[in-house]
Specification:
There is one protein chain. 67% of the residues lie in helices and 5% in strands. By secondary structure, the chain is mainly alpha-helical. The chain is elongated and about 85 Å long.
């Protein structure tokens, strides 16, 4: 989220300039703001900082609740990992936002000590955790679909240890996808007159690209953006649209079955089906919010990639940058909303949250298999080796 705010705005100009044969031989100075981007000052210096701080607080609370012993389940582990990834996506740019925008140090050349740190905190690290958040959301949708539609497969593969391993793997792969970004540039000290006081000098930096990038700038950035468009925007959003539609259809089918069970006076199975359906409904709301704010950025990135790859004019770069920053701000604003969804739609989340701060004892964990947490399919209880397999409590909607 926040990473793309700077990354796109910088790389739009870089990709345009890469068409010149001398680019890379004439290092550019690092600039915090490009001409015409003063609107970023209140956005990054005030609005973003407020929502980042709110996100940090709410996501810490989400993790504290979902990682309680009686709340632990494969689904809640993924929700906790998503909260961590979203929190770190906003946390890392916070020092840069405060120093350059809130304190208005964008008016001066960035000090040399800030050059690499600025890129690291504002682009590279946030992009890793935003990528992880995207694929964790896809993983969550796949997991829930398997739970409600393929219970036998869930019992075998969707165990707590397997989900933890897959979650860690997503973070590792997300880091590997950005590995070249950490070493693509050099930072050379450069002394010049201060913007604020021309009678004094300041040491800032020139930022030339390394040789492996300069050899073919177009190829390098086309690969970077092509990979991002396909694997970080197009495929995840497409999968989520399909999976969300399947989950909604499954919920409707389950609702019809629940009505049938009620007519047959099978209240126990009907209650189990209702609980499973409510959990699915809450996750559909989380996935829907994600798509609402991520799809516009995905469309922007696709159009941007098409424009630069095919050398056609769709819209000017300043419009791309403006739309990108609007999309990124929307994503940031959406982060605390997950906490509100959990509070509004999960009685168990609310109860656990309340008990945490009222010093009341937590519920005892249900007796379950040491490895698995498999929900009932269509309200049916599954038995294996004469032992009832029940779901470790996930956050469920209020009755």
């Amino acid at each position: 989220m926040n990473s793309t705010k700077f990354e796109i705005s910088n790389n739009i100009s870089l990709m345009d300039e890469s068409n010149h044969t001398d680019y890379g031989r004439k290092p550019e100075m690092l600039e915090i703001l490009q001409p015409g981007q003063l609107y970023l000052v209140p956005i990054n210096g005030i609005v973003s900082i407020i929502f980042i701080l709110v996100t940090i607080v709410t996501n810490i609370l989400v993790m504290l609740v979902l990682l309680r012993r009686h709340m632990r389940s494969p689904t809640n582990i993924i929700l906790s990992a998503m909260a961590l990834a979203d929190m770190l996506t906003g946390f890392f740019p916070l020092p840069s936002y405060f120093y350059f925008y809130t304190l208005r140090n964008y008016e001066e050349h960035p000090p040399f000590d800030w050059c690499y740190l600025y890129k690291l905190l504002s682009e590279y690290l946030p992009m890793i955790f935003h990528t992880a958040s995207i694929w964790l959301t896809v993983f969550l949708a796949i997991l829930r679909y398997i739970y409600v539609c393929h219970t036998d497969m869930a019992r075998k593969f969707c165990t707590l240890p397997n989900v933890i391993k897959a979650t860690v793997g997503i973070f590792v792969v997300a880091a590997l996808t950005q590995i070249t970004r950490f070493v693509e540039t050099q930072y050379i000290p450069h002394t010049l007159p201060s913007k604020r006081d021309p009678n004094t000098t300041i040491t800032t930096c020139l930022v030339p690209y390394r040789q492996f990038v300069v050899q073919d700038m177009n190829l390098y950035f086309n690969l970077i953006f092509g990979f991002r468009v396909i694997f970080i925007h197009f495929i995840p959003c497409s999968l989520l649209l399909i999976l969300n539609a399947l989950l909604i259809r499954t919920m409707r089918q389950a609702q019809l079955r629940r009505r049938l069970l009620l007519r047959q006076n099978k209240k126990s199975e009907s209650k189990k089906l209702a609980d499973s359906n409510c959990t699915t409904l809450m996750l559909v709301a989380v996935l829907g919010l994600f798509l609402l704010v991520e799809l516009p950025l995905g469309v922007i990135m696709i159009l941007f990639s098409i424009q630069n790859t095919l050398d056609i004019i769709i819209m000017d770069n300043s419009t791309f940058i403006l739309l990108t920053n609007i999309s990124n701000t929307s994503i940031l604003v959406s982060y605390p909303l997950n906490f509100l969804i959990y509070c509004a739609m999960s009685r168990q989340f609310r109860e656990t949250f309340t008990r945490m701060f009222s010093c009341k004892p937590m519920p005892l964990q249900r007796e379950t298999s040491h490895y698995t947490a498999v929900p009932q399919e269509n309200g049916k209880t599954h038995k294996e080796n004469h032992t009832t397999v029940v779901e470790i409590p996930e956050i469920k909607k209020s009755e």
